[in-house]
Amino acid sequence: MKLNPILTALSAATLGFLIGLSFPVQIAPQLPCYVLSWSGGGGDAASNVLGRLSWVPFVVSNNNNNSSGTAAAAAAAAEVMNQNKTTITASSDQVVTSSTASVAAAAPKLPPTGAERLPPNIVVSESDLHLRRLWGEPREDTPVRKYLLTLTVGYTEKANVNATVSKFSDDFDVMLFHYDGRTTEWDEEFPWSQSAIHVSARKQAKWWYAKRFLHPRVVAPYDYVFLWDEDLDVTFFDADEYVRLVTKHGLAISQPALDFARGKKSYEITARRSSGVEVHLNTTGGPGNCSDVHQRPCSGFVEVMAPVFSREAWACAWHMVQNDLVHGWGLDVNFWRCVDEPERQIGVVDAQYVAHRAVPSLGRQGNPETGGGGKVRARAWREYSHFRARMTNADRAAQREAAAAAAATSPPRSK
């Protein structure tokens, strides 16, 4: 008996359907649809195989508000790819399957904000303060110095500033912040001034300049940044030896010890020890200040007067400087936040010491008609109060966020 052609076709179709259910084949990558390079019109996206095969790890939109979406998509893609043991090559345009590679190590970094449209190899996200020639081959220019000295200065203190700069070798770039507007006179009197960087803004304080001109990406090439006042007596100071000592002792934030016999006395921890030690990290002295050696300003503390930061420590401290609080009061008792071990990585260098002459240069920048220096100091105290309040509120907010995150990730309690 001949088979009915129609029944034969239906039987074959049914058999093929059953085989397909038993042995499913997935040919699309297992990625969320929002990280696919997919912008089709009508039709079912799930059934568009070509659209799913033509994918990229990160989607860059022309929308100006795409940063958070891009980061979320990248995180989701990384999580899924980690589950599937898929890694992205450094060029970010190929997919390589590996059963052992780590996505966290191999995934490319997101480009800096603003550089998303540029080819990665042309992006330069850091700079320096080293002066270049206007002629010759760029590769033949003098190299960037290893360290940076910054001083906030007025011309009336030129003799002391000159003495300070003379203690720093050619390994240092020098940057002067002029609060009195006088810049050209320095070039006429001091040869080193012609190779220094000069920034002029009238009647501004050191931390105002630091926030605006010492961004971590601008000073990234420098191993150490000296952020000093202009009124330090440096008779017994040598900058190269100082750098050697802070490197030897692993100090990320430091200052030279103060000779109280020749200058103004401040916190007991900053006083020079005459016992032949190179550095010290704490103190138990002072009138009622240091009953607990593990608290500021008894350890993990240097003043805002003459701090020296490692590259990494300054990258942290810069973010703590407030735009509107220009005197910097209160920063020093919070420098400990910028290192891993404050009682080991913050210290005072006794072998290289200075004296604080305490010249009221900032006070003279106040308005004489409204009280001059007294008004300036009153502003500094108000700023200190504001900074403490902001830090307290920031700590509390961080604690609440941490508690909420912990509660969200903790498993539910069994009844």
Automatic annotation (TrEMBL):
Comp. bias intervals (Low complexity): 394-408
Key word Disulfide bond present: no
Range of residues in the leader sequence: 1-24
Region (Disordered): 394-415
Keywords: Signal
Pfam families attached to this UniProt entry: DUF707
Name of the protein in question: Uncharacterized protein
